[in-house]
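Instructor's aside before we start: the two examples that follow are unrelated to each other. I chose them only because their records fit on one page, so don't look for a connection. First example below.
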Amino acid sequence: MKKNAQLIEEINDALTDLAWGSVEIYVQDNIVTQITVKNIKKTRVSPKSSKSSSENIKNKPQVLTNKKEKYINVYNN
């Protein structure tokens, strides 16, 4: 019974120190062999706004290809 209490304490410690993430418990032959803690770091940085990226796409020349007739058209909007 002492081993079970120690195992529960180890799992509890893994969960206590975890803000975001997961705790995985690996079992082999009915014995817990490993406790893996995966921490996730959340960020407050947002990606560039979609407006600026869509403006960049509009400003770039677009290339149209037609393989059958073997020609390339390049044009700007």
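Example two begins here.
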Amino acid sequence: MKKPLYLIMYLLFFLGGCNEEEKMIEKPEVIITQDFPNATNLNNNEQLEVVTWNIRQFPQNKTYTEPYVQSLLEAWNADVYLFQEISNKIKLLNMVDSMDGYSAVVDDESGNLGFALVYKKEFITFNTKKELWADTPRSDDGDIDYSNNAQYQFASRPPMESYVTWSNGSKSIDLYLINVHYKCCGDDTYDINDSSDETSRRHHSSLLLTEYLINNRSTDKVIIVGDFNNVGDQAITNPTISPFTDNISFQYSKGFKMMDQNILISSPSGFSWQGWTSSYSPAHFDHIIINEPLFSYIESAIVGVIDTPKETGFTPANVANRISDHQPVFLKFLIDN
């Protein structure tokens, strides 16, 4: 008679213990895509919409990042998204696969913090891509010749150049989209004698890009986007971006136009990086630059920074930790031929 009683008590204790243990295990919250009623709809079938976004080690939050990002991309409804800092390319591709009407291409060479092109298949045809300077050394050779280790200048993130075609009926335009992510940190002082200096590497990256575009894409329509990490003085003379913006020091820069230049020289409250979870001051790191063959489209162009806390209704800290600490920059212009 005692044996069954002991068995029953044992089973009750064991099962009860298991239940308590299960209660202690934190189960991940299931988050589905969100409705963001304040999100801006960029879409217009008569125009091209391009958005650049440093998406901060995507997906930085295993629960929230993917559904929130997907919801925002679908709400903004742009033709082209160009991302930096993709830590998990498979998850990015899987997310885009669940988006109606979109496809994605990721780079091959940049490793942990990579690039991605996400595009609307209705209007965008992806043709080809390549990683610029991917065959050059990633290490510092100590000399002042920045061309023989170009990939090092770009912090081992060779720019991803995508050749695409936008079309709608009889209207069409071919574009080269170049996605960059320059070396971070340092100051804003260029030192030609210090090959490891962060600002020098950023400046050399811009010199390499302008030389490449002048020599290889002078008649092609090119849009350069990304995180330029131009720390320090937010001005057109900042060494990181000056080859594109400083017409006095670089005469050839007249062949380029930073479309978000008015943001760069305006109030810091409108910058793309606000330093929400940092002790550093706001900075406008994220830019969209076009070359001369696109100047005829400037008149209809609209450029801006997407205010992600306002668009989501989340606190800046939650946006930074669950989505990204960078805000996207967009460019849209009419295609009239």
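The first strand starts at residue 47 and ends at 58.
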